[in-house]
Specification:
mainly alpha; zinc ion binding
């Protein structure tokens, strides 16, 4: 027995489904910049957008943006028919798309606050009140104990379904879609045309249902026309707003980084070489000879205070006796003699 999607739409790729799933998160990051009541604001906005999109296009807000469509799935032997979403499936889709993410976000925020509170308690040495039944039912232990397991389980299920979808082992991208009995496919050209006519019929029916005196109907029609225009251009407007917001954020962040970046100065020039003292031992013309014994350098060693190289035994005896560099007469000790090594 096979799961098939009715209609001529083809199965969307894993990357299309992933992009459609990540779009609400991107919208949330851009639209909920204020930190007060951000969950309620975003949930209300998505409730309007998702409800309108499911009612008119049988697809979520993000799916309709990518030209995708939800269809009911029926089990048949070698043959199945797909139809538009039922009212129950639309309502449950809103629950999975808006309501459950809202409660998950609130629970995640509560969990983070409890973690911060426990961290402050551990830093300041306050004793834990311990685990009791009353504390559990107030929600504190639910957030700190149950939420990590709930989050891990949901993420594990989500990853499993995405992996199976990527391997063509299932036609459902998530557990929610399978629970609804819904698969996602690409909308065909005919379906897009039918969607346009369907939206027109819905709006005409809503206008015909207006009741009241003529002036009230005129006001209601004007409000409906404004709401229709807002909903029609919501997708393009939101995507453009997110793009502009991200560009401004990148621009100001780059400018701030340029202002706060430390000034990089060029490296200072090297110190000049020490000069040969008049009373010091003169340097031989051949730099491969030792200035003390005038022989080839044996175990070449440098005096760190001046940088000149001699035989180790020669410079060790000289510095031990005179406590200075033989060439520059700068004070030195045997601890400031370093042997030089090189690969042969």
């Amino acid at each position: 027995m096979l799961f098939q999607v009715g209609g001529d739409g083809t199965r969307p790729t894993f990357f299309e489904m992933a992009a459609a799933q990540q779009l609400p998160s991107s919208l949330r990051a851009a639209l909920t910049y204020p930190r007060h009541y951000e969950d309620e604001f975003f949930a209300s906005l998505m409730l309007i957008l998702e409800g309108h999109s499911l009612r008119t296009t049988d697809a979520s807000f993000a799916e309709s943006l990518y030209g995708l469509k939800r269809k009911s799935v029926r089990l048949r032997l070698r043959l199945s028919k797909g139809s538009g979403l039922e009212k129950r499936q639309r309502i449950l889709s809103v629950v999975f798309l808006v309501v459950l993410p809202y409660f998950k976000s609130k629970l995640h925020g509560k969990y983070n606050k409890e973690r911060e509170a426990r961290l402050r308690e551990s830093i300041w040495g306050e004793e834990d009140q311990g685990f009791d039944e009353a504390d559990f039912f107030t929600g504190r232990k639910v957030c700190t104990v149950c939420y990590p397991w709930m989050h891990a389980s949901s993420e594990g299920l989500s990853f499993t379904y995405q992996l199976l979808y990527l391997l063509d082992a299932t036609g459902f991208y998530s557990l929610g879609l399978q629970a609804l009995g819904v698969q996602v496919c690409r909308a065909t050209g005919q379906e897009l045309m039918d969607t346009s006519s369907r939206i027109s019929k819905i709006r005409n029916h809503e206008r015909e249902r207006l009741r009241g005196p003529p002036w009230l109907k005129t006001v209601q029609r004007a409000l409906l026309s404004c709401s229709y225009a807002v909903l029609d251009y919501a997708q393009t407007g939101l995507i453009a707003a997110v793009f502009i917001f991200k560009m401004m954020e990148w621009w100001y962040q780059s400018a701030e980084e340029r202002l706060t970046a430390p000034t990089v100065y060029p490296p200072p020039p090297p110190l000049p070489s020490p000069k040969v003292a008049k009373e010091g031992i003169p340097l031989p013309p051949d730099r491969t000879l030792c200035a003390l014994c005038l022989q080839k350098l044996a175990n070449p060693s440098v005096v760190t205070v001046s940088g000149f190289v001699f035989c180790y035994s020669c410079v060790f005896k000289y510095v031990s006796q005179y406590k200075r560099c033989p060439v520059t007469l700068i004070p030195a000790s045997v601890d400031q003699i370093r042997r030089l090594f090189h690969d042969t």
